[in-house]
Write a structure and sequence with these properties.
This protein has helices spanning 10-17, 113-131, 157-162, 165-168, 183-192, 210-213, 222-227, 231-239, 274-287, 319-323, 344-362; strands at 21-25, 28-37, 43-51, 54-55, 58-59, 66-70, 86-87, 91-93, 96-102, 175-179, 199-203, 246-249, 266-269, 290-301, 304-314, 371-377, 382-387. By secondary structure, the chain is of the alpha+beta class. It has two domains: 5-149, no CATH class; 172-387, Rossmann fold (3-Layer(aba) Sandwich). The chain is elongated, with a radius of gyration of 26 Å.
Length: 388
């Protein structure tokens, strides 16, 4: 577990020592129990949420001076709009009304998060104390470490910066499996490792060889290639640096060992061998496990590479239609082209389409369709989808 950021960041440690009720949650510095005055001249308590910039486990100076506010529009003790602070419209985020407040030092940004928090708290609670001198924003603070329940090795400041941390919570607790860690599977891992799922199980019995390095995310070193580790051990070493739940399985899934997939919440199939794919699809169907199968069929000609990328989604409502489109899924035909042409950008694209589909199913993206198959035509650049 990484050190608690407040122990290395003087501004956060100072807030804790001064008694503020503060916590790091999903890349946000959350300050609870901030007294303020509402439009009816009543003292209430609200919460400040501030996206944090960090370098590893140390905060760096804020670049923005606006914050998120869970509470009514703050007012003066006489019930007038608070001077020097603009208030945005409220948004309902997962049942909680949140608005933006904007309060800036004259001609500059805040030096650190201690200055930012105390400036906002002073402006808000100063008016509340005129009506109730006993109210305080400093009940005695303990900085709570975000890492206590986080699957990440360090704070996810990207989600808090984009305002998607609440939507990201819809991935919590999920156990994923990726079967096949070649070009497509490794890109799927690259994308899902940045989500707060509980665990990501990797299945592949092959070694990470030199040709793999040219159709996979990142850049393998010469030392990586000389080790000739299994693909799952190689990728587990890479992505365990950001996600704690990477579980390597250096084995080929055979009929007798498919029960391990029954406990998964979702499976990404990124293999092209027909016989194991057929067995896995049938097992997942019987176990009621949702999955996505990916396929790439490319051909090389003198005019350039052409072919199709396929993403098939199998759920309780799309099983029959989905399996009919999967090569080997229900006795279907092989991919249209079998030259085993692999190109990194197309591996990344089909992986992205698969992960986008999964995220839509989880509710991270708005889901306006229930398609069971999508096909990207490399030559035309068009995506064709079909629903049940």
């Amino acid at each position: 577990m990484s050190p608690i950021p407040s122990r290395r960041s003087a501004d956060l440690e100072r807030l804790r020592d001064e008694g503020y009720d503060v916590a790091l949650v999903d890349g946000l510095l959350v300050v609870r129990r901030v007294p303020y005055v509402d439009g009816f001249r009543t003292v209430k308590y609200g919460t400040l949420s501030i996206p944090v910039r960090m370098a590893g486990d140390v905060t760096v100076a804020p670049l923005r001076h606006d914050v998120r506010w869970s509470g009514s529009p703050p007012c003066t003790a006489s019930g007038e709009p608070l001077p020097g602070m603009s208030t945005g419209h409220a948004k309902d985020i997962d049942g909680e009304l949140t608005r933006r407040l904007c309060h800036q030092p004259s001609g500059r940004e805040f030096m650190d998060y201690h200055e930012l928090v105390t400036a906002y708290v002073g402006a808000l609670s100063g008016q509340a104390m005129l009506l109730d001198p006993r109210c305080t924003a400093r009940p005695g603070g303990v900085m709570r470490d975000h890492n206590a329940g986080s699957p990440f090795q360090y704070v996810d400041t990207a989600s808090s910066r984009a305002g998607t941390e609440r939507l990201g919570s819809r991935f919590h607790g999920q156990k994923l499996a990726i079967v096949g860690l070649g070009g497509t599977g490794s890109y799927v891992l690259d994308l899902v490792a940045k989500t707060p799922v509980a665990s990501i199980h990797l299945f592949d019995d092959d070694t990470f060889d030199q040709h793999n390095a040219f159709r996979a995310p990142g850049a393998a070193s010469l030392e990586d290639l000389r080790l000739r580790r299994s693909k799952v051990d190689h990728w587990a070493a890479v992505y365990s640096q950001i996600h704690r739940g990477i579980v390597p399985h250096p084995e080929r899934l055979q009929r007798g060992g498919l029960s391990v997939l029954d406990a998964m919440d979702f499976v990404f199939l990124c293999i092209d061998q027909i016989e194991p794919k057929q067995s896995i699809c049938r097992r997942l169907e019987r176990a009621g496990v949702r999955f996505i199968d990916t396929g790439i069929g490319l051909e090389v000609t003198t005019e350039g590479v052409f072919g199709l990328l396929r993403v098939t989604t199998s759920t309780d409502t799309t099983r029959a239609a989905a399996l009919a489109t999967i090569p080997g899924g229900s006795g279907g035909q092989d991919e249209p082209y079998r030259s085993n042409v692999q190109v990194a950008d197309l591996n990344a694209l089909v992986a992205s389409l698969a992960v986008l589909r999964w995220k839509r199913m989880c509710g991270f993206y708005r889901n306006g369709a229930d398609e069971h198959v999508s096909v990207f035509d490399v030559e035309s650049g068009r995506v064709h989808s079909a629903s049940k």
